[in-house]
User: Fold these one by one.
Assistant:
Number 1:
Amino acid sequence: MILVTGATGQLGTAVVQNLLKKTSANQIAALVRDESKASALKDNGVDIRVGNYDDTASLDKAMQGIETVLLIAGTDEDNRIKQHQNVVDAAKKAGVECVAYTSRSLKDRNTLANKLMEGHFQTEDYIKECGLNYALFRNVLYMDTIPQFVGERVFDTGINLPTDQGRVPFALRSEMGEAIANALLESGCSNRIYKLTSCESYSFDNVAATLSDLSGKEVDYTPTEKSAFETQMKERGVPETMIERVTGFLTDIKNGQEEEVSPDMENLLGRKPASLKEGLKVLFNF
């Protein structure tokens, strides 16, 4: 049986939905914090287990009868590493055979501007050292984040970001969920690291050109300085911690941390992942 944690989140939902297409519901369990949000999963026959990453007793209970656990990265960035360790410890205690984890595809952990990303690699280290078989899914930035990066008024203001000509092989979250589900069912846990990216990397020049093509409106990309971008965010009332996080992501893009392209996702899907144009057409409802 496969246990998916964070199963009512966006990535967790995508994984479970794809598992349901290819295996029996009685082979799938879902760890959720709020059972009321899991009614659709329950209706589909998924075994609902209530708990959270801080509650070790609930984790111990959730791991019973589980062969593989997919640990979806937590969103509590201040406590995430300890929470992940709790899940791994519970899996090992219960005799789970495999721990899989949704990490991040980044080139060099030692030169990251966004220091919060280091937690993913510390989790990877802990999983590798725990003695269980593992699968690590290093996910590139979701294409789904592009609307947030470019802003609601992109067709009026264009794109103004401190990313220079940095490139990202953006991929849709839904296809990442499908690729992960396929890997769990077909490849199992053989101490593998998968880099889940699209087949081609894109700059925000490419994003602007694609939005221009799709909308029929001219969208320009103007690289800005980090300091000017931070000032603009402050003027809009964005909290300091959020400014730091956003600029960390964008600086890493500029520095090439996100640019690596891998065939792993195409191989797991059995087809090419959605292109930038195909993805933006869906995300912007063209």
Number 2:
Amino acid sequence: MTVKRHALTALLGAAIAATAVVSATPAGAESAPAKPTVVLVHGAFADASSWNGVVQRLRRDGYEVIAPANPLRRLADDAAYISALLKTVKGPVVLAGHSYGAQVATNAARGNANVKALVSVAGFLPDEGESAAALSGKFPGSTLGETLTQVPLPGGQTDLYVAQEKFRKQFAHDVPAREAALMAATQRPVTEAALNDPSGAPAWKTVPSYVLIPTGDKNIPPAAQHFMADRAHARATVEVKNASHAVLVSEPGVVADLIERAARETTR
């Protein structure tokens, strides 16, 4: 009996030792790097909820996501706000912007070395001195101007809204009518000044850029978006056939896929 106990003890000891060897991390091996944080900047006539479908997919795939409220007041102030947020994020960041939000993003990324990629979704990638208004008028095709309503503000500024009855056709023709109606009613205005403010030195000149272009965009002509993507030497340009300016709402999977591609290629 004593001999059998000794033998059993020896076998258990050997099994524990073998398990330890198998489970131990090999010398010099490194754990997989953490995924970057994705920061999503909404544009004019929208709010952060426009990213909801994209956020759900990114979080499902293991990404931390922040979708802040973009003030939509003045370009320099909006960019400063997003820049301050970026400074609080630990680790690498993939910064995506929709429409005017992409212009804010390329200004906000300047001086934030943790931003490893920029993703423009139906957005602006201006050079220094260029404005959103000028770029949207650089090529024919935008019908945004004729859909806007103005609200004069104290102090002399003017808020711009897309008229609700024109919103779906102009902004979100591929979004279900009921959802587009909610978007129209809850849209956040942008100031006329913000759309005419000149850009500062853009981060796209030093940060890898990825561009998604909806070919049915009636706000920013697809030709203008291709021009900006080519000028920025985008690592990838993805077209979404017949999609509206609200492509992040109508095709969140395609948008999330491009953001995740940018994350994989720039934060290995």
Number 3:
Amino acid sequence: MNMKVFAAELVGTLTLVLFGCGAAVLAGEFVGQLGIAFAFGLAIVAMAYGIGSISGCHVNPAVSFGVFIAGRMTGKMMLTYWLAQFVGATIGAAILFLIASGKAGYDIDVNGLGQNGWGAGYLGEYSLLAALVFEVVATFLFVVVILGSTHAAAPTAMAGLSIGLTLTAIHILGIQVTGVSVNPARSFGPALFVGGHAIEQLWLFLIAPLVGAGLAGMKARIGFLEKDAA
């Protein structure tokens, strides 16, 4: 196991959960949906330049899966990324819970921890089908941008910005639908602490992002994300 890569992905995913979910839990009433969307996007921008040279800053099992399907990493390395990402998300959620519970009146059953979901009682109360379609399509588009932005022919110095802004746009669109996952680890960490309904619905946020990322990886693998040779 490459410990530098493991540490980078752990810290990166921890940061994404702490900043993104933290903005929703600790500051949502002040910054609103747009502020939460930018918190997720800016966390990715920051980590892209902070750990990108070490691990590529996947901080998302779906991204690593898409990269694997595209033929840009081995299955063994993907599993290292996955382990680091799930551990990092869990630690990030634990830190957020410790901070949030320091406020008088905070109740995880009422205030949550930025967990994902759908249906009655959850944000916009969208249906299961709507949640499934959104997560598959949004992850597909997100990974298309990532694979395109990090391609050898792309101006990779701007990759972190393009990827972060794409995640911001996805959150602006989809927070009311599912809270936006597009990342199984990001969903796993908060759900582990919230339990109950969040755990019951976790399956969608583990499977749908992998489906979307796999489709994006296949497009890259067969050359649809590469320009024709001159």
